[in-house]
Amino acid sequence: MICSYTCNFTFGSETEVAPATQTKLQISKTLSDALDKRNKNVGNDRNKKSKSEGYRSLYNEKWYKINSFPRLYYHYELVCGLEKRLKALRSSPTCALKGAERVQLYLAGEITEETEKLITSMKDEPVKYSLREGQWSVSALIYFQSENEYLSTIEELIDSIRPAVWTKAFIVLNQTIRPTKATAESKYPLLYRKKKCVREALNSLLEIPLKKIIQGFLEEFNRGSIRKEEMPEVWNECRSILSQMSPEGNSRDEIQIPETIKEFLFQRSGIHGFGIWERSEFRVFIGNDENIEQLNSELYKLSPEFFNIMSLHIVSGEMNIHRYVKQGDKVYLDKNCDNSKASYATAGALLKDSHGQDEVYGLTCHHALAHEKQIVYIMSPQTKELSKFGECLYSDTEPFHDFAVFQIDKDKQRNCDTTFLNRLENPCNVNIYEGPIPANAVVHKKGATTNLSDGRIMSSEFYYKLFANRSEMFLVSSIDSPDHPFSAQGDSGSVVFQHDRSPDQRSVSALGLVTGGINEVRDESSTEALNSTVCLRLNKALSRLSEKKQLDLEFKKSRRTSSSSDESE
């Protein structure tokens, strides 16, 4: 079976990890004997030619730091955070990931610097072999086929090593090999000699322990060992992370609110807000004077198909939203007050004109910069004095379309770093997300008050009528402890983003901007919405900017990820 370039892999059953009793000496001797047999079969004593051909060795045991595999490391960080929160809620949890930060790989065949680059793009040198403490629980043999080498010979070699000291073996085909009946019937997964294909296969294998940990937690919930009612956020976090790790992720068609229902609810004066909750519930927030039974009946009649999929929950009571500007990398809004009490918001990102102009622009919120030409200030880290940084170019006046753009002064632009950093704080490319917001997805943001924080989409489509809002929003809840919310006052304007699923974590999708938070819910059935974050769709905000100001903004291309050749391999 050849794994396609699109990397839709089928691994079959998961192999048990080999016991650690096999010593390094025994492993090397077993493989050495097998390699001697291989050399005789192919009539090529490559040991004698290794130096002239640039081969390091016919067999290498390598140790890599876990951050050499960015997607694995990103998911590892998420699961470690989950374990930490579960530890605080349970008496004696198991910390399965503690210290396991080194990955062991076995490389064989045509090993060169170029073939090793197929494994990881990170420049860190592999860590030296030491004690097995901290060893990742799965490993792989990666065999690089040479030009004149038969697959049957390679398979015979791998078969002869007993017991196998790796979890799974892969064969990376030589570029000159064309698929045949033999390749289609190979007992080991075959990979094209492409970075994307090799790294996808390797990351998918290495992520198995993380998936097992989360699946174990979910099984405990299902058995009742952990009660969902006591830890609803942990339950939802488990499902969100597992979805993030799955190949298809949140790619399935997202359910959207029918236009007939939206128009009906917008026209009713007693409706405060409504939206999709999680993946399976539609909530409507109403005043005390509304007739719940009548509203329930009318909604079902409008779209029975929608309510066959979504359960209807009508909430009697109000939901109050506050916006994040408070007395207190920030942009300041008033130079004339005490610096310690100066109002500030977050410069969510610095962007440039997509038409090649040199100007630099910052994103924030309308409630922070309410008027065009309003001055924006920054604080000097040395003197703590505020100085002019730029001025507001655009502030959307439509109620609750909470978006503003400021233009940075020419003399300040040389001090601006327009690089966008992902959850691992590595430079990355940014795609403006255009599709339906993925329900329950794991997201992140970096704000001026709470810095880097993790959350999940709680409501993928939400409307709040008290602000005459018809612009689509979404709600994010924190997946950290209650003491660490996803956002707080001063975080307005932060970009909310989602990691992609590529092995190298080259890009993120920008979903929206933080505009405020829910600080009061007058109904006990919706208390989980308390302290959640309200976000505006970024693609719609930028579209309005283009329409009103004929200004099209784009994120900086990251140096680390802008290589077209690296993307295509």
Mean pLDDT over the residues: 78
Through-space gap between termini? 20 Å
Helical percent range? 25-40%
Largest sheet, if any?
6 strands, mixed
Describe this structure in words.
It is a single chain. The strands form four sheets. The protein has a six-stranded mixed β-sheet, with helices on both faces. The chain has a six-stranded antiparallel barrel with strand order 21-22-23-26-25-24. It folds into five domains: 16-208, no CATH class; 216-245; 259-317; 323-413, Thrombin, subunit H (Beta Barrel); 420-557, Beta Barrel (Thrombin, subunit H). Helix 1 runs antiparallel to helix 5 (151-159) and helix 8 runs antiparallel to helix 9 (232-245). It has 15 helices and 27 strands. It is globular, with a radius of gyration of 27 Å. It is of the alpha+beta class and 569 residues long.
